[in-house]
Amino acid sequence: ISNLGLCVYKTGEKEDALDFFLKAGTTAENVYEIAFQTGRLYLENGKPQKACKYLEQAAQSNPEAGGVYRYLGECYARLNRAESAITAYKKALKFNPGDAASLSSLGCLFDEQGENPEIAIMFCRESVGLSPENGLFRHRLGQLYLKQDRLDKALKEFTEAKKLGYGNPEDIQKLKHQIKAKAS
User: Is the pLDDT of residue 112 over 90?
Assistant: First the structure.
């Protein structure tokens, strides 16, 4: 049943795939893949509270499977559990240091927690280096640069993010005017 769920998921039918994983979960207790996929689908469907239960179950059933921790971190972040999210993202990076999504998210969380701004930027910059085609990662880096009044770098990242389909052209125009005003 879980294989059928994966096939259905690949066609874009997330709700139907979730139904298959929920059915599979009733027949095979505590199987990592079923718990992981169920949690991931709940998260993708905007239900982090439900997702958490399954992702935590997946992490408990196979603590060496690093992939679950990124999703668990995202889940905790959406539930405003910053410390738990940071811990989960750190575990994800322990298993996969090249996890660009975890690096970017961790950088943002560090910034929100008031950590050293250079460390936050380092994580976000690393994520962009690993995944330069990701507009969200570039936008996040641009936001951090903007907070530090590094306007030219912020503009560069926001412009690249917009080219990649992420961001707001009005924000870019405002930043251009701000740079121009500062130069005068």
Answer: yes
